[in-house]
Amino acid sequence: MLIMGINETTHDASISLIKDDKVLFSGHAERYSKVKNDWFTNKGLIDNALEYGIPDQIAYYENPFLKKLRVKTCGGFGGGKPWFEHTYLNAIPRTNFKHHYSHAAAGYYTSKFDDAVIVVLDSIGEFNTSTIWAGEGNDIKLMYKDNYPFSFGLFYSAFTQLVGLKPNEEEYILMGMAGYGDPERYFHKVKDYFPSMSQQKYNFHKGIIDWDEPIGQQEKFDIAAAVQKVYEQRLMEFMRYAKAKTGKENLVFMGGCALNCSANTKLWDIFSDIWIMPNPGDAGSSLGAAAALYGKHLNWQSPYLGYDLGGDYPVQKILDGIFEDGIVAVATGRAEYGPRALGNRSILADPTDPDIKNKVNLIKKRELFRPFAPVVMAEHASEWFDMNYESPYMQYAVKCLKPDLIPSVVHVDGTSRVQTVTKDQHPGLYTLLEKFYSVTGVPILLNTSLNIKGQPLLNDMNDVKIFNEINRFNIIT
Ligand SMILES: [Fe+2]
Questions:
Q1: Is 84 in contact with 43 (CB distance < 8 Å)?
Q2: How many angstroms is it from 357 CA to the middle of ligand 1?
Q3: pLDDT per residue over 367-384, tens digit each?
Q4: Which of 65, 139, 173, 224 is the most buried (most CB within 10 A)?
Q5: pLDDT (tens digit per residue) in 248-263
């Protein structure tokens, strides 16, 4: 049976298509419409998905009735009629799953675990904001829930807005800013807003409405640092509670909060093993809804599930470009499903050159304080970074052990958001690293997404052409 999962009417719409346990396609609406975090699906995305087959069933990622009720009674984001309902897809039998259940299913059914606690933390689903589930065999059972207005995500988003960033989109920038701030300056003040895992000062949907001090640039960094510290403390409390409640050693972490890679690292102190699928936010829920309808584990292979540019990985061209210019852009094969470029829509650069960071920032037109990530051969990761686990989707920020040797991929706080690669995960990218290593002794490259700040990742050849023209660049395809 072919199942199409759809996620719409919230930030970052997406579509997935599965055939039994095989994921045939997963793509983001924004990559086709060029509207960042597009709420709605579109013809380009749907047509691309349908190339992989006509679905027998549609699985939708939330309950539209409850969602409407919540938007009406509580306000806030989300809502509108899903665009796909205007197409013939609307005639196909459809099942709706609850928002947090779709998150839980996306995580658990793509994991290797048959016994795990599943924690979902986001801003808000229909009404649920924080849930704990027990995954056993093919069953996912709800064990705990918190409802709106209590919310980990809304807390973080409200402070994102307070420092002048865009809530529900630029939380990752606040996380990056935290490295530049003094967490102690505002720690107690911020903690008063979220004193324990079950207590919050007020409804963060309305933003921080009573901050009574002027906020200059240093204050923004100090607030970011305090928010990150408070978030991490509350997160650890919640995770310890989840473990105690279920007695499980394996964690599946989902929801937009699972994108906080600085906090995620600390979870290894609590759990024996962790799975965060590469798209833990709402865009991952098209796959989650499809998996929920299938009701069993999927045969998870890789996150390269989107638009297919075709071609073999251009290893030699990339290598030549890096040795010549220090920096190249590559667009090849299938687009990544998830917010991070993992090699197929990437800018890759020599991490040993301290000036390369500025060059990449100029191309991407983004803030100079933002860190860049390293991609490393998995078997060498622990020699360069303080980690003894794999991080295939850049989900953990860990201490760099040799910051002087790879200055362009180390954040101001001494950490790096690491992507580990094995030959199985991505043979082309692995071979590239192997060759770079054999010449330089460094098994690492800088890897950042191929886009301009605030715009979606490049998707097809037309995007490549436009990017090349505007930036006088020559993307390797
Ligand atoms: Fe969500």
A1: no
A2: 33
A3: 666 678 999 999 999 999
A4: 224
A5: 999 999 999 999 999 9
